[in-house]
Amino acid sequence: MTDLSTNSTLETTQPGEAQFGDYFALLKPRVMTLVVFTALVGLLAAPVPVHPFIGFCAILFIAVGGGASGALNMWWDADIDQVMKRTAKRPIPAGRVEPGEALGLGLALSAFSCVFLGLATNWLAGGLLAFTIFFYVVIYTMWLKRSTPQNIVIGGAAGAFPPMIGWAAATGSVGIEAVLMFCLTFMWTPPHFWALALFMRSDYDDAGVPMLTVTHGRRSTRVHILVYTVLLAALAIGTGFTSIGGPVYLAVAVVLNGLFLKGAWEIFRRDEDASEADNFKTEKAFFKLSLLYLFAHFGAILLEAGLARFGLGGWA
């Protein structure tokens, strides 16, 4: 405990003492960035104009709901986070935040975000957010993650809901356009995470998480990445000919999917006898490209929506 009777101007912190940043880290801010952006695209790409204040509130509550999911995920996964190098410094395994604090924060933010999103927009959007939190925490984190190598495939639905929630917040319904954005994120998730798993396999081995790299090996994972990338490319380019697509989106999709297919092919043809350093370089490059991939596709959808406001977007 800090001695307030001293005249020292330096702040001292006891080892393990939680700071504001530790509680914020529980919300997985980097993941929240993707949630916020895709939800914002869903909101703004909808054909119904939304008052700026209502739109701000909707995105804020969706972001809080995403953060609540992260806190509950860290609460449940504290045991495996402790043995994985990538996650060992998170607030709970590092001893800076108690598991009960993370649980309480996650539950409180979950209720707050769903209720207030429903009040600010409509109850379909609030219900979809509640289902997304439930799916991520219960279906994925508590069940799928530790029980099947298809954890990322099925569990990826949780990360694919935000654009649908944004669309529902604007329109009060779920249209085919929202489903397309959901599918785009859903199909992107497996190759994105399997690439990460390829160069972080020892972490999943140590934690006993049945990631595809652990249960079926590197070669099978590379085949799966290629297959999903081909399917994703067909979906992404095909979306360019729908109402949320257009010439700008199609140009972005063709270029990026060409690069993504090239990266998946390079991973597929890797020599298993090659040095791990060479393999990791290829897999990390694909993983970094996958981050740009989704942001660029949704950015192009947003740009097409903006052009459409002036009668310039789409194929009309």
Automatic annotation (TrEMBL):
Domain of life, source organism: Bacteria
Topology relative to the membrane: Multi-pass membrane protein
Annotated Gene Ontology cellular component terms: plasma membrane
Keywords: Cell membrane, Heme biosynthesis, Membrane, Transferase, Transmembrane, Transmembrane helix
InterPro entries (UniProt xref): Protohaem_IX_farnesylTrfase, UbiA_prenyltransferase, UbiA_prenylTrfase_CS, UbiA_sf
Similarity comment: Belongs to the UbiA prenyltransferase family. Protoheme IX farnesyltransferase subfamily.
Subunit structure: Interacts with CtaA.
Protein name as it appears in the record: Protoheme IX farnesyltransferase
